[in-house]
Predict the 3D structure of the following.
Amino acid sequence: MTAPEDRARSAFAAEFGAAPDTVWTAPGRVNLIGEHTDYNGGYVLPFALPQRTAVAAGRLDRREWTVWSEVGRAAPVTFAEADLEPGRVTGWAGYLAAVVWALRDTGVDVPGARLTVASDVPVGSGLSSSAALECATLGALLDLAGSELPLDDWPALAQRAENVYVGMPCGIMDQAASSLCRADHALFLDCRSLETEQVPFTIADEGLAVLVVDTRAPHRHTDGEYAARRQTCEAAAARLGVDLLREVADLGQALAALAGDEVAVRRVRHVVTENQRVLDTMTLLRAGRTSEIGPLLTASHASLRDDYEVTVPELDVAVDAALAAGALGARMTGGGFGGCVIALVRTESADAVATAVSSAFAEHGFDVPAAFVAAPGPGAARA
């Protein structure tokens, strides 16, 4: 298959009979560790995938936006200024409308435009296809507007677009990864201060690989489960007298204060211990001891399964099968309720681990999973 930027250009010419003025791409991401910590002001450690979403864009002389996507080959969607109110444009086109709205809300004079979308990022797999779409759209629209927005400001703007316009209460990790990541690095992000550190992650040089297994279990946050967990965390923080669970200094004391509310106890325990696992992972990576992070990944999955309750059978079977086949560590990645698993493996065993997961899925009657080795790639860029 041709690159998404080439497909976006070709689609623009086919749909609109002209060449686009600009094309931008942005990647999906996997999160190495640090799940459901971002909206609690904690730590995350994602890296960008080689799979990318491309947006080709051309100016219009009227305040109107027509968007087309190769996903589903749906008919073009057109929206005007009157539609730039949160919730007015829904479905996949809502993410593009959200970026137009967010840019205009910050004072950027976004011109009318025609846009075509092509993507290699699997949709609904927990690999941040929405953030990739938002960041690629953001770059393209800034080009058309002749406006420069510091790259460090992109994550918050794209997050606001998704939070307010789309109505998805996500944290800032996905948008940060899609815009700020560098090739051969993981991005350590403090979600409270928004400070970042680019951490070398050239695992191939160490004979290691990150195997991504797409379980193809439907990945849904819109059923309210994600929002419910965020609300529980916010309520628990209020009861503990802190703004964010990141600020909990004594886990034992916090859990004692929440005694009797077992759901809150489990959620808080996950967030606090997961933050520590991110810091412990960083210590090992900085010391060049990548092969030792496996148990931290596996402990993260156990916490997400038992305390945060966001795994599903496909995720648990994939993790168990990967570990049984020799993975050094494995965990679900993303928001959960379906989606993907990552496994840290010796390079030479990647195929065997993928085969073991497929065999386990067949035994359980699950859909056939897809697997690939992920090399850390760069963030959003003009194509």
